[in-house]
Design goal:
about 400 residues; two-stranded antiparallel sheet; elongated; disordered C terminus; alpha+beta; single chain
Length: about 400
Amino acid sequence: MSAVMITRKVRKWEKLPGKNTFCCDGRVMMARQKGVFYLTLFLIVGTCSLFFAFECPYLALHLSPFIPVFAIVLFLFVMAMLLRTSFSDPGVLPRALQEEATFIEMEIEAANGNVPAGQRPPPRIRNVQINNQIVKLKYCYTCKIFRPPRASHCSICDNCVDRFDHHCPWVGNCVGKRNYRYFYLFTLSLSLLTIYIFTFDIVHVVMRSVDKGFLNTLKETPGTVLEVLVCFFTLWSVVGLTGFHTYLISLNQTTNEDIKGSWSGKNRVQNPYSHKNIFKNCCEVLCGPAYPSVLDRRGLQEDSPAPASTAAPNNSNNSSSSSPEPQAMKTTAPLIFNEHTPEDAKPSLGAPAQKSPSPKEEHPPPSKVPPLASPEPDVDASNIKDKSH
C-alpha cells in the first residue's frame, strides 16, 4: 500500500468559522436560527394575499384602480428590502490567521510585561483618536483581533460585525455596516404597508356595511377580520421600531451604543461620529457609499490534504521493495521537533524511526533484545576510551 496526498480547492465560505449558513454557492449568508424569519415571511405574504383577494377587487371597482397597483408596488419593495437585509453580509470581520494571532499575542505580552502570579492581567485595549476624542479598541478573544471602532461580537452568529447595531431574529441576520440602511428601509416601508392595508380594510368594511349591513359584510369577507387583527397588533411594534431607528439615525448612533450608553454615560462623552446636524447624519447613514464585503466568500483556497491509499501488486519479488515505504513515512515524525519541543517527548516519537525491522524477520522471537536496547554501542565507546589512554 502507498499513500498519495490529494489536495482540492474549495470555496472560502465552506471553511469560514462562526455560526452562519450559506446558500447559492456562498452568495446568500444568514444566521442558523431562521425560524422567526420564516414567520415574518408568512405574516407579510399571507396578509397581503388576503388583501389582494378580498379588498382589492371591490376597492378597484368602486374607488380607484390605483389602490391595488400602489399596494403591489409597496409589497414588492418591502420584500426586496427584507431579502436584501436577510441574505447579505452585515459586515462580518475575518478572524486572524494563526501567524497573525501569535504576533498579536507577542505584542500584547511585550506591552504588558511580566504579570505577577495571582494578579489579573490588564485589559487588552488600544486607544485611537477620532475627531479629537479617544476611542478604545477592545480585543476579541474569539476572533483574535482588535475590533475596529463601533464593531462588536455577536454571540448568536459568533462573528465580529463592523458597526454592529443588533441581531434581528425577524430578518434572520445581524444588522451592521453593510445592511443597516436596507433594514431601516424595510421597517419604514413595512410600516407604510401596514397602515395602508389597515386603512383600506376599514374603508372596505364601511362601504359594504352601508349596503348590506355590518354583520353580513363580515360573513362575506372573513379575511378582512383576520387582516384587521394582524395589522392592529403589528402596527404598534413596527411603527415604534421605525421611530426608534429614525431617532438613532438622526444622532448617527447604533442600537448597541444606545443600550450600553456609550455616549451618554457618567462622563457625558460626546459622540465622535455625529456631525451635529440631523440632515448630515441621515445622509451619511442612508446615502453613504456601499461598502464591499471583506470576507471574499467565493474565493478559492486549498483544502487540508486527505491521504488516499492505493493497492500495490502482491508479488514475492516486489515484497522487499514495497514494504519499506510505510516505514519511510514514519521517519518524518522527528522533523516536527524544534527548540520548543520537550525533551521527554522526543524519544517516544523518535524511537520507531531509528531502525526499521528487516523484511525477512516476519516473526522475531520474543526473547530477542530490541535494537535500541543493545549494549554494543557502550562497549565500542569504552574500547575507544581505553585506546586513548
